[in-house]
Specification:
heterodimer; A: mainly alpha; three-stranded antiparallel sheet; 17 helices; B: five-stranded mixed sheet; 17% helix
Chain lengths: 408, 197
């Protein structure tokens, strides 16, 4: 694309006609630690060069020295807006390698947690798109429902942001009554809030003019750039890992995949909103399925996998056998079969993949994370070329870039 | 019309014959290997063939096997045919003395940063890459940190030694005794493939 330069300099001038602007690494509008070196002609972007890696923590190397359980905490810190999805994805990877089969109730509990995470992830992303276009209200308004989701996490696993939730084979404990009460509250109140949130934005003239046509991408380019998740679907490709490679019994649920057509910020916004409605419906379906369970099945919260699932703490203190297993599992001394596994889940911003190679040792021989936003962020310079500086900000927030995930 | 692993294998063997080796299906995912010189030919064929159409590059990374002389570094491609919803894994092996592999950026724009990351951590020199420089690590770094010769912890520690727990060193992990602090120029595995500045 040829861009006409608007700054006219006298003949023979040695000055540049463009301005270099460092956007980031700690610019308040970038929502994370990444830097963009923009070449500007007035307010129009001539080129953008991304620099990533500011919070690189060498997770892949660290993982080569950690038993499987200790890697869960690393996955928390990838996409920290939806860490439970990463945790579950990692447990699913281990279960695939170890051949652990999870009971249906565990799958449904996981689905509830993963869909709650998806809602909290999309909620933040969409409301931040609002903030960047000048609408702060939505962001503050939905924050209390993210808070409610975090309270549910807290009841399930004890922590909020970096959850380290679950175990290989299931959950560390059954959901208590507070979880279900809070979930009831969420399911009862959130639809109204989401509706109101949509009312604030979807037909808002200012919001539409800011987002429609900003940072568009065609389906073909999006695929070539390795887009996944809502960003790909906004470009019109109905690829969703939950449907194409079902995991955790997603095949038992009825839901739609919202798609857009132009792949611009507005479509990405609509797709995320649509997905939140679908997530709510999935949670309700899972809730009903769990309520329909009877007898012993209704109490199961982990697979019968004594080799990998920690024994109850009370037994560890009182029974020799349980103590031995506890020690073996914590020290990573249970048998891990050699193998090569790729497992993916639909994360908040795309396909989160785990490529695990085990040589039978106590730690992975190699572990690679497929981090969706690392892959699609390279399209940023193409998306913003020729756009206005203010579009650069809104494109960045609507891509749902998470620095922790990008830099691993 | 479902595209099965057998069909993919048949078509590939019909086109490339003996060149493709080590067909496996770990956990149902078709995996095979090609000589590194023909990685682009295979990728192009997988991309263009009207039945295969592996047009989505899911993942690209590398693995270091220091005990396989002449084929220490493996570049691993995960490809996805979104129409038939089939995935495959494709590997090429290269010697760490001359880790040159052709770039896939012409086929997949997504490969750009993934190859930069792979170069950054393993030192694979992607020939023809438009901008092969470090991406996550600092530019001044002189070694490739995910290679196995750079131990993560102090190797004098014995409390985490596998052999202390009744599990001997296994063939894949078997390494010579690691020595002292990291040094970029260890004699047994010279680091090469210097960046094209």
């Amino acid at each position: 694309m040829s861009v006409e330069h608007h700054v006219k300099l006298p003949e023979g001038s040695i000055e540049k006609t463009t301005t270099t602007l460092n956007l980031g690494p700690t610019h308040p509008a970038t929502h994370g630690v990444f830097q963009n070196i923009l070449e500007l002609d007035g307010e129009r972007i001539v080129s953008a060069e991304q620099t990533v890696g500011y919070i690189h923590r060498a997770f892949e190397k660290l993982a080569e020295r950690r038993p499987l359980y200790q890697i869960t905490t690393l996955t928390d810190r990838l996409n920290y807006c939806s860490s439970p999805i990463n945790n579950m994805g990692w447990h699913l990877t281990c279960e695939k390698l170890l051949g652990v089969k999870t009971p249906k109730r565990v799958d449904y509990l996981r689905v509830i947690i993963m869909e709650l995470s998806r809602i909290s992830d999309h909620l933040i992303c969409n409301s931040v798109v609002g903030v960047d276009s000048g609408a702060f209200t939505g962001f503050l308004y939905v924050m209390q429902y993210r808070e409610l989701i975090y309270e549910i996490y807290e009841e399930v696993c004890g922590s909020r942001l970096t959850t380290n939730m679950g175990r290989i084979g299931g959950f560390e404990r059954n959901f208590n009554s507070a979880v279900w009460e809070k979930l009831d509250k969420f399911l009862a109140e959130y639809p109204k809030v989401l509706k109101e949130f949509e009312n604030l934005f979807t037909r808002n003239r200012i919001f539409m003019e800011r987002t429609i046509g900003a940072g568009p991408i065609s389906a073909e380019r999006a695929l070539n750039y390795g887009f996944t998740g809502p960003n790909l679907r906004a470009a019109g490709v109905d690829y969703d890992v939950r449907v194409h490679t079902p995991y955790s019994s997603y095949e038992d649920f009825q839901f739609e995949i919202p798609v857009g057509s132009t792949g611009d910020c507005y479509d990405r916004f609509l797709v995320r909103n649509g997905e939140m409605w679908q997530s709510l419906s999935i949670i309700e379906q899972a809730y009903r399925k769990i309520q329909d369970m009877k007898g012993a099945e209704a109490e199961i919260y982990h697979a019968d996998a004594p080799l990998y699932y920690l024994p109850p703490k009370a037994d560890v203190y009182t029974k020799m056998e349980a103590l031995i297993w506890h020690f073996k599992i914590v020290m990573g001394e249970t048998e891990i079969p050699p193998g090569e596994v790729y497992q993916c889940v639909e994360g908040g911003n795309g396909e989160v993949g785990y490529y695990l190679i085990s040589d039978g040792g106590r730690t992975p021989y190699r572990l690679h994370f497929r981090r969706p936003c690392f892959i699609y962020y390279q399209a940023y310079s193409e998306l913003t070329k020729g756009a206005m500086l203010s579009d650069a900000i809104i494109v960045m927030s609507s891509l749902n870039l998470i620095a922790g995930e990008m830099d691993a | 019309m479902a595209l099965t692993n057998e069909t993919i294998k048949e078509r590939l063997v019909a086109r490339f014959g003996e060149q493709l080796t080590n067909f496996e299906e770990p956990y149902g995912l078709l995996t095979f290997e090609a000589p590194k010189e023909s990685n682009l030919k295979v990728l192009q064929y997988l991309f263009d063939d009207e039945e295969l159409r592996f047009q989505f590059l899911t993942d690209l990374t590398a693995v270091h096997y220091p005990n396989m002389p002449g084929r220490e570094l493996a570049v691993v491609y995960h490809l996805h045919n979104l129409r038939d919803n089939v995935r495959i894994r494709f590997k090429v092996f290269t010697a760490s003395a001359q880790p040159d592999v052709f770039t896939a950026t012409q086929l997949y724009s997504a490969a750009n940063w993934m190859e930069r990351e792979t170069y950054d951590f393993f030192g694979i020199n992607f020939v023809g890459h438009p901008n092969l420089k470090r991406i996550l690590n600092v530019d001044e770094m002189e070694y490739f940190p995910l290679r196995k010769e750079y131990p993560l912890e102090d190797q004098t520690r014995i409390d985490k030694d596998d052999s202390m727990f009744g599990r001997g060193a296994l063939p894949m992990t078997q390494q010579g005794p690691a020595e002292g602090p990291m040094s970029p120029n260890q004699p047994e595995l010279p680091v090469s493939g210097a960046p094209v500045e």
